[in-house]
């Protein structure tokens, strides 16, 4: 799950938030696969030279410690993405990273926000910012030949942003509040955010959203920004459609100037690193009536997952399924076959998810159905996971799951911007990029016994359960046998 803001000339929030629960989970899954290094822009199992994958990026470092990765797809457009270790897990106070995502691309020492808008419009470019739990991505997309201008813009954001008080109060605060309110209208977004808080408490448990109940003052917001932008070891610049040597020159020119020091008076200036993630688990119930009135309810059941070196969790997710490969069919995966069984007037959803981060993972099942059907569907869904742990999945089942996992790995992040976010995550965490061939090789090495062990390990951890809707009627964890 990620929060995204796009400035297409003079507008913000163009990409907005996911419009539905399934979209939110799909985005979260895509981000998890990005962290695991499985997703690329190529959809074919054996990509041709004209279909570049993440592994085709050339990776290097500048003398100041900024990591640089480039690829040339031969497209008429280019893009530059600045990846920063400034996700919500690194914030010293709640909401700082969400505020920062909306505070970029405002006035700098060189340009006012209006001038930036007009010049971007003149060149037909697109500026966007995306926030995940671990990273902040600033992206410029433009026509080939305009890279000097947009490289300078991104560099100015890092080194010369003004962070004016009037922009903060008149533009940033309202946009942050709007995004928070939009997020609160989506049960899957609520459930995922609360599940991370229960599972990890701090760090990865920090919310992606700045709550209106937790005030973010301007001084702390600016200190957080300065600290994040001046951390060159936590910065990577990714580009497509730009020669690697030329990109290195642009980075040297625009990205290495010293940013104003963060205020030592503010606790937000302490942005450096995050403690090792620890899984806890727990249970939370969120009463809302906007979720289809009281007729529909949601339940998220999660467990401790694996890290990016454990592809068996990706296969386990594909094995359980929940999304049909056919438009008019339910599919044959265990969770796919459950939803028609519970019946009811409302469409039911039961789907597995697998979220990877640099040092932790969260695996689980998201259920959405008529309130009086949630317990039945959730019980059957948890039993499907137990069946895998008991070795009831055949080699053929696992083989199909591996094929599905490969397909998801190749298509989860098809767009260029999303792929650059994937590469940025990998370069920041490991200074390298995982190729599609390597990801496929790891998936091919997953056996039925490894998938069984992954299911057993998940069930041994304390469950993380979040109920959203009519909590008077939705089941408790122990009513599911957890």
Task: Give the SSE map.
Layout: E1 3-7, H1 21-36, E2 58-61, E3 67-71, E4 77-84, H2 96-103, H3 113-123, E5 126-131, E6 136-143, H4 147-160, H5 165-183, H6 187-200, H7 218-229, E7 235-240, H8 244-254, E8 282-287, E9 296-304, H9 312-320, H10 334-342, E10 349-356, E11 361-370, H11 374-389, H12 395-411, H13 416-430, H14 436-444, H15 448-460, E12 464-469
Parallel strand pairs: 3-7, 8-12
Antiparallel strand pairs: 1-5, 2-3, 4-6, 4-7, 5-6, 9-11, 9-12, 10-11
Helix pairs in contact: 1-6, 1-13, 2-5, 2-7, 4-8, 9-12, 9-15, 10-11, 11-15, 12-14
Notable features of this structure?
single chain, 482 residues, alpha+beta, Cytochrome Bc1 Complex, Chain A, domain 1, 7-stranded mixed sheet, 5-stranded mixed sheet
Short description:
By secondary structure, this protein is an alpha+beta fold. The chain contains 15 helices and twelve strands. About 10% of the residues have low confidence.
């Amino acid at each position: 799950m990620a929060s995204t803001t796009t400035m297409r000339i003079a507008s913000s929030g163009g990409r907005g938030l996911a419009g539905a629960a399934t979209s939110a989970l799909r985005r979260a899954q895509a981000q998890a696969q990005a962290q695991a290094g499985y997703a690329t822009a190529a959809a074919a199992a054996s990509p041709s030279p004209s279909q570049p994958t993440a592994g085709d990026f050339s990776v290097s470092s500048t003398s100041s410690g900024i990591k640089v990765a480039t690829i040339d797809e031969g497209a008429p457009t280019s893009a530059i993405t600045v990846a920063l270790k400034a996700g919500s897990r690194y914030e010293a106070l709640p909401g700082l990273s969400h505020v920062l995502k909306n505070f970029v691309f405002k006035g700098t020492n060189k340009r006012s926000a209006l001038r930036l808008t007009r010049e971007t419009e003149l060149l037909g470019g697109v500026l966007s910012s995306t926030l995940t739990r671990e990273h902040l991505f600033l992206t410029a997309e433009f026509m080939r030949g305009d890279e000097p201008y947009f490289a300078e813009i991104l560099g100015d954001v890092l080194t010369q942003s003004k962070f004016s008080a009037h922009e903060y109060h008149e533009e940033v605060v309202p946009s942050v509040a709007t995004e928070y309110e939009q997020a609160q209208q989506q049960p899957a977004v609520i459930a995922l955010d609360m599940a991370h808080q229960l599972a990890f408490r701090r760090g990865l448990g920090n919310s992606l959203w700045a709550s209106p109940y937790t005030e973010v003052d301007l001084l702390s917001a600016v200190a957080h920004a300065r600290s994040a932008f001046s951390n060159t070891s936590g910065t990577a610049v990714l580009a497509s459609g730009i020669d690697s040597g030329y990109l290195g020159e642009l980075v040297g020119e625009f990205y290495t100037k010293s940013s104003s020091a963060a205020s030592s008076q503010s606790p937000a200036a302490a942005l450096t690193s995050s403690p090792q993630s620890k899984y806890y688990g727990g249970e939370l119930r969120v009463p809302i009536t906007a979720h289809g009135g009281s007729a529909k309810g949601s339940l998220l059941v999660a467990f401790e997952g694996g890290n990016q070196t454990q592809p068996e969790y990706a296969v386990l997710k594909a094995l359980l399924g929940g999304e049909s490969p056919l438009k008019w069919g339910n599919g044959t995966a265990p969770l796919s076959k459950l939803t028609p069984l519970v019946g009811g007037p409302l469409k039911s959803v039961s789907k597995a998810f697998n979220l990877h981060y640099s040092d932790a993972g969260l695996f689980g099942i998201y259920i959405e159905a008529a309130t009086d059907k949630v317990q039945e569907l959730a019980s059957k869904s948890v039993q499907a996971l137990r069946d895998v742990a008991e070795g009831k999945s055949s080699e053929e089942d696992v083989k199909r799951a591996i094929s599905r996992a490969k397909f998801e790995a190749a298509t989860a992040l098809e767009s260029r911007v999303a792929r650059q976010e994937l590469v940025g995550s990998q370069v920041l965490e490991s200074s390298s990029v995982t190729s599609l061939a390597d990801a496929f090789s790891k998936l091919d090495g997953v056996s039925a016994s490894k998938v069984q062990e992954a299911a057993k390990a998940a069930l041994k951890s304390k469950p993380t359960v979040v109920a959203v809707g009519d909590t008077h009627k939705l089941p408790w964890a122990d009513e599911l046998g957890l």
